[in-house]
């Protein structure tokens, strides 16, 4: 039997990440893997990096991780850095990162493979195997999903990026794709103009036992008042605006 804990999109929320890790440590997991977007956006970039480094687990490079790598990756979408509010939060994170932190982020890989029972593998990425900018949603047309993933079957696959936990079947082999959701910045997509953030963290545990396969989506609550205090003490630009998305 093989059990894999999969988590993604911490976005500088070490407080939520600590809650996830406390729960994972109570499980008997053979592997841990992070699907990227570790640092950007939250009040605790350095603390999040420290927690992740101590796990000694494989880490996939997310689209926002590329903004912090040293040297900078040539395919970084610099247009994203020109979106209002993005560069100040990136500068905030950079001001709290050491050279060792940046080197660690630079070691993140485009894809990671985790061995499962038998000859199968878990293929891990952020957006798709081809690009961390690709997006796979629950509603993405099946043909588009297969265009991105079919070449990698019969592997089981997982990705992050869209902050939504879900599973989708891939072809007729029994393979599937899943997204574990987000550790940081869990939000309700029904609020299109001003998304409402939730004070819980998401991750998943995949279990392979011979021909038996189970996938469990987990949700871990945390103390919102304590997290708001962390925001207010952090010096993060636009902190009150971000806090309002949790309290609104």
Describe this structure in words.
The chain is an alpha/beta fold and 248 residues long. The protein contains seven helices and eleven strands. It has helices at residues 14-24, 45-55, 86-96, 99-106, 142-149, 224-234, 239-247; strands spanning 2-7, 31-34, 112-115, 121-124, 156-158, 165-169, 176-180, 186-188, 196-198, 200-209, 212-221. The protein is globular, with a radius of gyration of 17 Å. The relative contact order is 0.18. The model has no long low-confidence stretch (mean pLDDT 91).
| SS-based class | alpha/beta
Instruction: Give helix and strand order, one letter per element, not per position.
Output: EHEHHHEEHEEEEEEEHH
The global form is globular
The radius of gyration over CA amounts to 17 Å
Question: Number of helical runs?
Answer: 7
- Percent of residues in helices comes to 25-40%
Largest sheet: 5 strands, mixed
User: What ranges have pLDDT less than 50 throughout 5 or more consecutive residues?
Assistant: none
Distance between the termini: 44 Å
Mean pLDDT: 91
Oligomer: single chain
Task: Give the strand order, joined by hyphens, for the main sheet.
Answer: 3-4-5-7-6
Based on DSSP secondary structure assignment, what is the total number of beta strands? 11
**β content, as a range?**
15-25%
